[in-house]
Specification:
It contains 3 helices and 8 strands; from the N terminus they run βααββββαβββ. By secondary structure, the protein is α/β, with parallel strands linked by helices. It has a single domain, classed as 2-Layer Sandwich (Macrophage Migration Inhibitory Factor), CATH 3.30.429. The strands form 3 sheets. The chain has a 4-stranded mixed sheet. A two-stranded antiparallel sheet has the order 3-4. It has a two-stranded antiparallel sheet with strand order 7-8. Helix 2 runs antiparallel to helix 3. This is Phenylpyruvate tautomerase PptA, 4-oxalocrotonate tautomerase family.
C-alpha cells in the first residue's frame, strides 16, 4: 500500500485538503498506473504555528514537504532512477498545483523504502510478493 504524508503549516493546509488528496493520489497513479489508485493512502499533517523550525528558529512560512513510503525493492529495480525522478517530479507538481508556483523550488520530497519484512497490515507481517 503506497502511503503519502504531506506536512504543511496548519494555516496553509486548511481548506486545501480535497485538492491535495486528489493531486497526491493522481501523482502516484501517474507513475504506477490506475491499478494503484485504490490502495493509495494519503495523510495530511498540519503543523501548528511555532512547531516548525529551521536553524533553531520557528518559521513563519514553509513550503510543504512530502514523504512517500514504498517497498524498498523499488530502489533495486533497473529502472529505479527513472521511477525516483518521476515520483519526485509528480509530487512536486501535485503540491505546486494546490499551493501555487511560488513554493515549487522549496518543496521537499522524501522517498522512503520499507522492507516488507518490517511492515504489517491487520496485525500480520506483509508477505513478500513481487513489487510492481
Amino acid at each position: 500500500m503506497p502511503h503519502v504524508t504531506l506536512y504543511a503549516l496548519e494555516e496553509d493546509l486548511t481548506g486545501r485538503e480535497p485538492g491535495l488528496i486528489r493531486e497526491l493520489t493522481d501523482a502516484v497513479v501517474s507513475v504506477y498506473g490506475e491499478w494503484a489508485r485504490a490502495s493509495v493512502d494519503v495523510r495530511l499533517i498540519g503543523i501548528p504555528a511555532g512547531r516548525w523550525s529551521r536553524g533553531g528558529v520557528a518559521v513563519a512560512a514553509a513550503a510543504p514537504s512530502v514523504t512517500f513510503g514504498m517497498r524498498e525493492e523499488v530502489f533495486a529495480r533497473p529502472d529505479a532512477p527513472q521511477v525516483v525522478a518521476r515520483l519526485v517530479s509528480a509530487f512536486t507538481d501535485a503540491v505546486t498545483a494546490v499551493f501555487g508556483p511560488a513554493c515549487r523550488d522549496e518543496v521537499l520530497v522524501e522517498l522512503v523504502g520499507q522492507p516488507t519484512s518490517r511492515s504489517g497490515l491487520g496485525g500480520t507481517v506483509i508477505s513478500d510478493t513481487p513489487a510492481r
